[in-house]
Design brief:
The chain is α+β, with helices and mostly antiparallel strands and 303 residues long. It contains six helices and nine strands. The longest helix is centred in the N-terminal third of the chain and has 70 residues. The N and C termini lie far apart (115 Å).
Length: 303
């Protein structure tokens, strides 16, 4: 026969065992929760790091597509309009492609191996922007704008590899950017606006010197250079260029030329807010002088 005291001891021992089992179950559930939390945190960290890397990579490519477009768009300027010849732009498109290829190689020389652009990554499209204010690009002639698309393929020879790979995630991603640079149809170079002043080189080059005098690539940038020569102050010597005043028929103000080169001009600096166009139908009279100004050193420093 069991005494009341012995029954009480047996009941207390059973309760302790049950409490121990509950604590063990709680510890096991907590361990599983911690493991799940760690796995999810690691996956999220991988996604965040890869996203940050791709954003930085995309910004770097955007800067490079901007530079390539701005560099090559200048070659679309039809030289025929400057020299009273029949306009055509086949040679201008070829020049733009050469410039684009050259500057892509220059960029690759200073870029990290992971950021190198292959030839197939770059696409150039000549076209037209009717209004620089809205910037709508269409593939039409006459060309005054250039679109440069950069596309690094995940399956290409040098893809944009993710920072963290594995665990079933892809090893690389497609990265695309596009940039458009335009020359205003009313202007040779860049169009000054009320918001942005346009740097200006107030120098006219002899057409004969431009065609025949550019024979040496002094700085190895794959472009032939020409030394611009003005007459001496005493009026002696041979010249192949002249300083010009873009403000129509007013006398040349040589003192402001260094600031025009560095700070630029805006429409308020001109009698009429349009500089150009350089065509037979609407030529802009620009007074010129081939005499070296007394502030030549300041002009050279500005360039």
């Amino acid at each position: 026969m069991t005494t009341p005291v012995q029954f009480g001891i047996a009941t207390e021992t059973l309760q302790r065992r049950r409490n121990g089992q509950h604590r063990g179950s709680r510890r096991g559930a907590l361990t599983v929760f911690v493991l799940i939390f760690l796995v999810v945190s690691i996956l999220l960290m991988m996604l965040v790091l890869n996203w940050i890397w791709l954003v930085l990579h995309n910004r770097d490519m955007q800067r490079r597509s901007d530079v390539l477009a701005l560099t090559a768009a200048v070659d679309l300027l039809d030289d025929g309009l400057l020299e009273d010849r029949k306009p055509h732009q086949r040679d201008d498109v070829i020049d733009a492609k050469r410039t684009l290829a050259a500057f892509r190689e220059f960029n690759n020389q200073v870029a990290a191996d992971a950021l190198v652009l292959e030839r197939d990554n770059v696409t150039m499209t000549p076209g037209r922007v009717e209004n620089v204010e809205d910037g709508v690009f269409v593939k039409a002639k006459p060309y005054n704008a250039l679109r440069v698309d950069l596309h690094r393929y995940a399956s290409g020879p040098n893809p944009a590899r993710l920072m963290i790979r594995g665990f079933g995630s892809p090893g690389a991603a497609d990265v695309k950017t596009a940039s458009v640079a335009a020359l205003d149809s009313r202007l040779i170079g860049f169009c000054p606006t009320r918001r942005v002043a346009t740097p200006l080189a107030p120098l006219a080059i002899s057409a004969r010197a431009w065609r025949n005098g550019r024979r040496t690539d002094f700085n190895s940038n794959r472009r032939l250079e020409l030394s611009a020569i003005l007459k001496r102050l005493d009026g002696t010597g041979r010249a192949n260029s002249a300083l010009v005043d873009v403000d129509e028929m007013k006398p040349i103000n040589r003192s402001i030329m260094p600031s025009q080169i560095v700070d630029g001009i805006s429409p308020t600096h001109l009698t009429h807010p349009i500089f150009g166009p350089a065509t037979r139908g609407a030529a802009l009279p620009v007074p010129a002088t081939r005499i070296s100004p007394p502030n030549t050193i300041a002009l050279v420093a500005a360039f």
